[in-house]
Design goal:
- The chain has 2 domains: about 110 residues, Aspartate Aminotransferase, domain 1 (Alpha-Beta Complex); about 230 residues, Type I PLP-dependent aspartate aminotransferase-like (Major domain) (Aspartate Aminotransferase, domain 2), CATH 3.40.640.
- Helices cover about 35% and strands about 15% of the residues.
- The strands form 3 sheets. A 7-stranded mixed β-sheet has the order 2-8-7-6-5-3-4, sandwiched between helices. Strands 9-10-13-12 form a 4-stranded antiparallel β-sheet, with helices on one face.
- The radius of gyration is 21 Å and the shape is globular.
- It binds pyridoxal-5'-phosphate (PLP).
- Pyridoxal-5'-phosphate (PLP) binds next to helix 3.
- Its cofactor is pyridoxal 5'-phosphate.
Amino acid sequence: MADRGASPLDVTGRVRPALAGFEPYDPAFTPCRINLSANENTHPLPASVTEAMRAAAVSCALNRYPDPMANDLRDLLAAWHGVERANVMVGNGGDELLFNLLFTFGGPGHALVTCPPDFSEYANFAKMCETPCVEVWRDANTFEVDADALVDAARSASLVILTSPNNPTGNLLDPALVRRLLDETNALVLVDEAYVEFAGTPSHLGEDASLVCWVAGCPRLMVLRTLSKAFGLAGLRAGYLVADPAVIDALASIRQIYSEDVLAQAVAAAAVSRRRELVGVVADVVAERERLAAGLAAIPGVEVWPSAANFLLVRLPGASRVRARLRDEYSILVRDFSYAPGLADCLRLTVGTREENDRLLDALSILAREEA
Ligand SMILES: *Cc1c(COP(=O)(O)O)cnc(C)c1O
């Protein structure tokens, strides 16, 4: 029965105190002809892969609940990375796994160490899970992590998250730092490799830049991967964690049992089985990244950082206005980071197709001059 004449419900005071003040996530997605704002893969996948995914989707039994642990997909991922099924946890995107990690291993007295500027979800999820967050800021110019400061901070922490390549700065992590963290502290160490397929030689799909091969010998090391970036499946929601079986078990006991749906499991399995066919796409993105970086560096006033991912961080005068004009006058959407600490006047540009990148370069060369 509807309340008649009731005043609007005010939930302040009813919401769990740790969650008061959170706002719904707004990716600021204005529909634009060219969307280079969320690091998706805008290159079309080979028809052989899209056909296999379509066939997998069509043959799904949607009247049945999913396999909670997505074991078929787990086995494919385990075989790819040379680990056991027990080392792999599949999630509804890497984001779900990040949340579950904080939910499981965080909490009051279980500090998380992060190295900003990095992925804002780490601090966000930590706060939701009442986890104190210790920030070890990266170098303001190179975005390198201060190894001694990080190791010091990690000595009294439960969890450390490092991102390689880092979002939004694009640089790779020195594996020696992970070695030190494992040797000199007792913390769990998560390396977020959401973009690793774009690092190293494209034909290796990230295996030459990934620390996934360390997991079997390092029980406190965890590696996060996703199909949202190189695999071009951001809309599917499939990510995974490679970690010690004890970590996987702990996460398995708190997860939303059916978070990875039947369709996502089937389509992800088809894509992972055919991953060799994606090498050309990754190689194209990497080649475009280098071409775009060179084009950007040639625009007076634009500073561009080297990147091992599928995006580039740039700094230019009036970045916020440039971003708005790209959107309003050229229908090109990029991500504004100029509000973020340490990233004054910075924009993050996802590497698009050759045509998209040409449009972006043309527009930026005009706007950089006008807003200088
Ligand atoms: C995109 C991204 C993820 C995971 O994204 P999902 O779509 O949730 O799999 C994780 N970490 C970083 C740094 C990312 O940029």
